[in-house]
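Can't paste images in this forum, so I'm doing it all in text. The chain is below; anyone willing to post the predicted structure tokens underneath?
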Amino acid sequence: MKADNVSIVIPAFNEAGAIGPVVESLRARLPEAELIVVNDGSSDDTAAIAQAAGAMVISHPKNRGYGAALRTGTLQASRAYVLFCDSDGQHSTDDVMRIIEACDGHDMVVGVRGQDSHAPLARRPGKRILTIFADYLAGEKIPDLNSGLRMIRREVLLKYLHLMPSGFSFSTTSTFAMLKTNRHIAWIPITVAARVGQSTVRQWKHGPQTLLLLLRLTVLFEPLKVFLVASGILACFTLASFAIDVVVSGRFNLGDSTVLLGVASLLVFLFGLLCDQVSALRRELHE
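Text version of the structure:
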């Protein structure tokens, strides 16, 4: 993989303290790459500093979110691959180079943060819960669900760009979309440093939003995985209700609650089958 096939997209919101060195280091090591900084409505000198350091700068008139910035950068990119890199100084240029080198033959390469990477203690429990939930929905172990350092074949990413949210779940969504459509993915170990400045991620706000997003994506790509569980739970309640009816009446008897639960279980199962067919048709349309 040559750098002239790569567009590096860097979303930035009020990163005047870090954006300069980030752009300068990437420009020095990858002079042939297209370097795009999406200034997401910053109120400081982020745009001016990035431009002076040698990046193409695209500015949103107001803050639209991390995902919206990545979408803008992807649409503006002109190279075969799009590499996403954070603007806060967390990602090293060496790791960026390793991601690019590993991209041949893959639709996406993701930087997997190791144990020696910086991670705020307050986020670790939430991240663990999110990882367990994501692994179940994906049906496999995901090395790093939401790493911000990743490289994706642009023509593939454009097929799923309409699914990408405007907020912080862009990385999560792209991982899930690629896994669920059996794309070729490489996982490369990286080390993440402490960021410069204050993070705008809020665990109690963005964590539940990400969990809901994963559920929605599963319904979109593999709905039976959700509906079968829901139908099975209702079926268990139906059997329990029937057992209570038999114990209370002393004979074979179906109470109103048992009938309602049984009908609900059947309807959820049939609805899941219908959603599965719609999902298959939708995938064919976008493929």
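The longest helix spans residues 256-286. Strands lie at 6-12, 34-40, 56-60, 81-84, 108-113, 150-153, 185-190.
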